[in-house]
Amino acid sequence: MDQVKAMKVFVRIYERSSFTLAAADLNLPRATLTHTLNQFEAWLGTRLLERSTRRVRPTLDGEAYYRRCVQLLAELEEAELAFREVAPKGLLRVDLHGTLAKYFVIPALPQFMARYPQIQLSLSESDRFVDLIAEGVDCVLRAGTLGDSALIGRRVANLRQVTCASPDYLRRFGEPERLADLSHHRAVNYVSRTTAKLFPFEFMVAGQRQEVAIDGALSVFGAEVYKASAVAGLGIIQCPHYGVAQQMAQGLLQEILVETPPPPMPVSVLYPHNRHMSPRVRVFVDWLAQVFAQAD
Description:
- This protein is of the alpha/beta class and 296 residues long.
- The protein is 43% helix and 24% strand.
- It folds into three domains: 3-84, Winged helix-like DNA-binding domain superfamily/Winged helix DNA-binding domain (Arc Repressor Mutant, subunit A, Orthogonal Bundle), CATH 1.10.10.10; 90-156 and 266-295, D-Maltodextrin-Binding Protein, domain 2 (3-Layer(aba) Sandwich); 161-263, Periplasmic binding protein-like II (D-Maltodextrin-Binding Protein, domain 2).
């Protein structure tokens, strides 16, 4: 029996809670996974997964063995890379924040793929919460403050943010010179897709973060609609500088309250805390850090 192959099969079935999804991930027939797992359990002398027509769930032995397997498989891959001097290889699934993918990751991706030709990348785009284990995703790139304790985060950037409005809006309402002036202004509110709450307007004052309430009749989902609303003169917005740099250069938007800018936006890569970081994930995370460092 190929024990390493059997461990990989068991780990993928455990993580996906499905023979069908695991078979698709491993590009193997479902019957092969069933046969491999049955043989593996017989060889170990214990049942790792309880199967029914509706679900797959681990036994107590399966829970314990899974933790050992992910550690062993990661160590085996690292040992192979160290002693055989081979490059990381295999499938790497990454879920990306949409605008970060558009402005930073995709333009630089040819460099990564040329450097690591044996890594097969599968990219998806979303800003939602992703269950990395259940969905078979290795890591996610996200913007904003981290809140999920089940994930480990590595900060790869702190991106400059700006407060801005259109010249037409500023002609009608006047340009605010201090935060107190915002009581006479209008905001375009940005709604979080994950929490359905409005993002607050925040400013750095003497090194401290200060939140300011600004009246606004318009609330939007989505970065492109948010920017377009500001360009149309509907109110003040706050967003990362990279997202509006072109509009500012064209004179469609103007930065305001420069002396009290918004706090920078953290960008992090997240991966499960109970899974060893594989060499594939490690080189991708290191590469992302380089991409954002060069763009900063």
